[in-house]
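Fill-in record for Cysteine desulfurase.
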Amino acid sequence: MSELVIKNLHVQIENKPILKGLNLTLPQGEVHAIMGPNGTGKSTLANTLMGHPSYQVTEGDILFDGKSLLNLSPAERSHLGIFLAFQYPVSIPGVTVANFLRTAVNAHRKAANPDDKGIPILEFRKIMKEKMEMLKVDSAFAGRYLNEGFSGGEKKRAEVLQMAMLQPSIAILDETDSGLDIDALRIVSEGVNTLRNKELGVLVITHYQRILNYIQPDIVHVMMDGRIVESGGPDLALDLEEHGYTWVREKLENGTSA
């Protein structure tokens, strides 16, 4: 079973240190949540894991299945089984959801087997229809241009559909709850829960506890000052919702946090 291991990760952007010795292990089959105030480096972590070129790793390593990801491109990381659901998905006018998904699936097949000729169109349509029915996505969704004119909830459902089609080993959800009302959040969360299985590790990055009412984490981590300073079970998220982050800051200042 694969796992994502982050070891003493230091990251800077434009010479400004953001992550300052972050350690985390996420096995397949587990759901971990990272919570923390704004500006603590949560989205920096997500972008770094996926290989965004603007984020410079100055120390530490990111291992997936024992292999370092640091010298791999975002596409190569994706082909290995890492998936990032964006906080703010961009629109691609002129490219339908179906064409985008088929191109992505074919890229993964080609990476696994250079001689692969691509998924047959009938097979692709069958699989896509099954995934859309499983996620309760209307069939008309496939013919729309990717994220163009989509509501916040539709954009996030498109991300979950991509995850269903690509079947990653590790999925990183970067503040998927951002910009969603309660109904959209519930629908998107149900989609994630439908895909949840022993072969998928999920890292839920969020500022608020509310998404964790729907996606139950195995472990909750608190991030401050660019590193994990507290970890616990699902009740930790409830404590943060009720009491805020002051008590964590006090433990950090007193040198008693993990």
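KEY FINDING: The mean pLDDT is 93.
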